[in-house]
Amino acid sequence: MSQSIAQDDFRTTPSFSPEEAATQRGVFIMKVYGHLVGAIALFTLIEVYFFKSGLALSISKVLLGVNWLLVMGGFMVAGWLARSMAAKAGGIGTQYFGLALYVLAQSIIFAPMLYIANNYTGGGVIQSAAVITLLGFAGLTAVVFTTRKDFSFLGSMLRWGGVMALVAIVGAVLFGFELGTWFSVAMIALAGGAILHDTSNILRYWPNDRYVGASLELFASVALMFWYVLRLLMSRR
Q1: How far apart are CA 8 and CA 17, in angstroms?
Q2: Whether the Cβ atoms of residue 188 and residue 225 lie closer than 8 Å to each other
Q3: Which one of 42, 69, 106, 178 has the largest count of C-beta atoms within 10 Å of its C-beta?
């Protein structure tokens, strides 16, 4: 879930002329999305290594040995922790460490889901989920860039939605009911709101020296959407 960024947590950006400020901001945004692409590429390479080395099966056996709903809850908590690290990390080294650590953690958490999708739900489901996620991300990003609307107001609603999702997961673990199609649909919508919120904050509030942390936050929202798009497609197979 997207954690609202407290603007007071960020250092004040030095004053520039309007032209210099626009140039600086353009460079910052390019760096953010460049690092997002790099994070996605690193995630993909790690998953390829897991599958080719056989680690995907070993990881799957371990994680699938516990209640899968607990893994889903852990996925959400990891996203919150990553965003907290992104918002507070000052040095560039700390930002890179947080991004690399989060990508690795997501790669491990995703391994069982991807293993099942690859071996038991028929070919193409992973590719379909990736394409749908990419199109959704591109469309939502275009909305923010074209409208220039401030979506920071979504922060409180996203936090509330995240808490409710965790309550639903805990309830499902304790009482044994299924979190079916509508839960996945709701979580995809929540991930879409997180992308709107994060992109808006990146355009407006993130300081120019926090491009790695900003990309981490955006990667967390993209990963959330991919997880639940994949879960939804798998449930239909």
Answers
A1: 23
A2: yes
A3: 106
- Alpha-carbon distance of 58 to 61, in angstroms, equals 5
Which residues lie closer than 8 Å to 48 by C-beta, 6 or more apart? none
**For 86-112, what is each residue's pLDDT tens digit?**
667 667 888 888 888 889 889 998 998
**170 within 8 A of 73, measured Cβ to Cβ:** yes
180 Cβ neighbours under 8 A, 6+ residues apart? 235
C-alpha–C-alpha distance, residues 216 and 99, integer Å: 5
DSSP string, 125-160: HHHHHHHHHHHHHHHHHHHHHHH----TTHHHHHHH
> CB–CB of 191/224 below 8 Å?
yes
Which among 41, 225, 39 is positioned nearest to 131, based on CA atoms? 225
Please state the pTM of the whole predicted model.
0.84
Q: Which residue, 54, 108, 50, is CA-closest to 78?
A: 108
Report the alpha-carbon distance of residue 223 to residue 191 in Å, rounded.
9
How far apart (Å, rounded) are the C-alpha atoms in residues 208 and 172? 42
Q: pLDDT by residue (tens digit) across 159-201?
A: 898 888 878 877 877 776 777 788 889 999 999 999 999 999 9
CB atoms within 10 A of CB 25: 17
Q: Could you count the other beta carbons within 10 Å of the beta carbon of residue 49?
A: 12
Rg (CA), the chain: 18
